[in-house]
What we know:
- This protein is mainly alpha-helical.
- It has helices spanning 3-26, 32-51, 55-72, 76-83, 107-125, 137-151, 168-192, 196-223, 229-235, 264-281, 288-305, 308-324, 328-347, 350-358, 368-387, 415-448, 454-473, 482-503; strands at 92-93, 104-105, 250-251, 254-255.
- It has one domain (3-503).
- The strands form two sheets. A two-stranded antiparallel sheet has the order 1-2. The chain has a two-stranded antiparallel ribbon with strand order 3-4.
- A hairpin with a 2-residue loop joins strand 3 and strand 4 (254-255).
Amino acid sequence: MPASIKALxxxxxxxxxxxxxxxxxxxxxxHESDFSRRRNVWFALTIAGFLSPNFWVFALIAAPLLVWAGxxxxxxxxxxxxxxxxxxxxxxxxxxxGIKHLFALDNFRLLSxxxxxxxxxxxxxxxxxxxxxxxxxMDFSILAFGLLQLFSYVPPDLPDxxxxxxxxxxxLRRAFLYFVDIYVLYFVTSxxxxxxxxxxxxxxxxxxxxxxxxxxxIFESFKGWLLYSNIGERWGEQSVWGSPYGVYFFRQGxxxxxxxxxHALSLxxxxxxxxxxxxxxxxxxxSQWRRIAVAVLLWLGLLSSQSRTELLGxxxxxxxxxxxxxxxxxxxxxxxxxxALVMGAASCTPIGERVMNSIPYFGESTERASVDYRQQxxxxxxxxxxxxxxxxxxLVKTKMEDLRQGEGIIDFVNTYAEVTLFYGSIxxxxxxxxxxxxxxxxxxxxxxxxxxxxxxSLLGASLVACLLGTLFMIAGTSLINGNEKMFYTLVxxxxxxxxVGKLSERP
Length: 507
């Protein structure tokens, strides 16, 4: 039996169990028709992804399904999150006459073209005040960061190190892709989640598919088999991280799981955010053992990715949520006890001991090369930032060639340093304004609703904890793949949460 068929059977078996057991809970917040449609489209696209000989066959199957599902769904962002990682984000160049290629297309952009842009167009035509809002400070910050990227051209990091020159056509291409990749995602999220039910439906949809990814990740780590690697091998493309899909990375003797996230770091970040959402959603489940089971699966999936920064970020999310909720001190002490017990129990298991030892300064880490590389990168980044402190240096990679790794990339492993190197301190301020504004808006509503509406306040506490956790985690990874999509989705959800909270206070 071909490896792709075996992998497909395993993925379908895992997903069938998760969707079956998760259905009663998800239906508390979602319409049954929406749930059934999302699940069926997920299965259809998963089968198409594993069986399609190339991306274009997959796209021919996926596009009409996505357009149909997007028009039917009452909450397009929930549909978007369910299907965000139905297959790994494998970029395929669109050929064009006269130029090398038009731009790369992957599952993310396919979702944007077929689900988000039609939803954006429908929202623009609606008359309801909940959907139509003038440009806000968060909108302005996102647009400003996009304009900065248009005027400050960063050449792509090509294998032959050729520095491509900018052109008017390239400026238009970048503007179009920024709209497709970033702004439309934020806009649809912040405007379509215009009710409490829509907000919670979005969180529940993401948690459901994250449990599928976590379960797949656990299987991959213990079996030493990347289930989705055959798709990339068959389509013959590389990941945006610079390494081919299907390459196995090990840490402390265990395979670093990727599931359909495309990279272990992305899987870790996504599962950390899903755990933050579950801190709010879990108590709505009557069955305590199922509530605990979901949290355990998310954490085991996170451990299977062996993403160290994301592991610490998830711990930070847990404590932040405890502090922001009612009865903060007892909840914090209970959280500390639970964390100590879990970490103690995990350290007694082979995988737990190896994961703890892989965390710098927390155990007997044997991977000094990774720590040394990060320190060297931080020192070099600071030296180069001081040379161009305000607007950055778009050609800074040419001065960091000695830091290029065996994968052929300069792994910045720090979003703050990466943004500042290319766009300077001005770019960093504009970039951070996006998430900081969302953070403060959500926090203000969370505190205002603490007594009058504790449940809505806890929803805000979950979002604030995830936003703070994101600010921590992007210090240890680049904002790429699902990390980038979830970053702007979180910002959009925070904006929607703040708006819904204020809207409900109006007479």
